[in-house]
Amino acid sequence: MVQTTFLDQGKFFGYLAKSRWAFLPQICDASPRVSTQALSMNIPLLMNRNIMGGWKYMVEGETGEFFHDMSDFKESLRKILDNTRGESSPYKPLELAKKKYGNVNSGPRLFQFVK
What we know:
This protein is mostly helical.
């Protein structure tokens, strides 16, 4: 695990591209952009279930894992570590993001919004 100070977008995407999963421990974030950025790069999430927003992108077992607090953090961490070890992973975050939010769905909604 690597902890950094603030990164510009280029460096951040470089770190994310090398990651097996992304960690979102915060709760005071109504729209964590890092969640959609990770999913669009096919990186699963380990996300705090108590986060204000962004949880709609999580489907446990498909886009990553939730944890509630320290009582279940170790179990969720172990699960995502085990599932992302090696070449195959049960997580398909990019597939789900495209299906739910890709051009086929987002395009018409954007068109109706600006119309």
